Amino acid sequence: MTKLTLTPGTQVSSPYRAMTRERMRWYVDAQPTIAADDGRIHTQEPTIHDDDDYARAQGLPGIIADGMISTNWIHSLLIDIFGAGVNGRSKLSTKYVAPVYENDRIRAVVEVEQALNEAEGAVCVGCKVWCEDDKGRVVTFGNATVWV
């Protein structure tokens, strides 16, 4: 867990990661695989997330990442910063504002906006959150509230 001074404006970011075709595929196959629950990997019909021809037919230059990947990367960074308690008492809301293509390099960023002491001794931390590519283009943004 990262030691974070809860001062407004404090930023923490993850390293950049390449959005690989394999990462994109994990998300596409997750739902049918979980639904089948038979120990095998199941695939679905072509989507904009896994089939270049299908994505191009929809007006895209190629496959794009599922938005939940960037949301999960933000969630992981919140856990790195604040600990596993994020999974119990927190709120995370994101919006996908730009497509992420294969091999784009993306990082998650958390910025503290406010830290308020609560009566029971906990601190409520309000954060801006986003994912951006290595050119500074924001692809996902939102906010998080974490109690520590």
Provide a descriptive summary of the structure in words.
- This protein is of the alpha+beta class and about 150 residues long.
- The protein has one domain (about 10-145): Thiol Ester Dehydrase, Chain A, CATH 3.10.129.10.
- About 25% of the residues lie in helices and about 30% in strands.
- Strands 1, 2, 3, 4, 5 and 6 form a six-stranded antiparallel beta sheet that branches.
- β4 (about 105-115) and β5 (about 125-135) form a beta hairpin.
- The longest helix is centred in the first third of the chain and has 16 residues, at about 20-35.
- The mean pLDDT is about 90.
Keywords:
Thiol Ester Dehydrase, Chain A, alpha+beta, 26% helix, 3 helices, 148 residues
List the helices and strands and how they pair.
Elements: E1 11-13, E2 17-18, H1 21-36, H2 52-57, H3 67-82, E3 90-96, E4 105-117, E5 123-133, E6 138-147
Antiparallel strand pairs: 1-4, 2-4, 3-6, 4-5, 5-6
Oligomeric state, counting identical vs distinct chains: single chain
User: How would you describe the shape?
Assistant: globular
C-alpha-based Rg, rounded:
17 Å
Query: Unreliable runs, pLDDT <50, ≥5 residues?
Result: none
Could you give the distance between the termini? 12 Å
Fourth-level CATH superfamily: Hotdog Thioesterase
The ordered string of helix (H) and strand (E) elements is EEHHHEEEE
Sheet with the most strands? 6 strands, antiparallel
Instruction: Tally the beta strands.
Output: 6
Task: Please give the CATH architecture.
Answer: Roll
> What share of residues are in beta strands?
25-35%
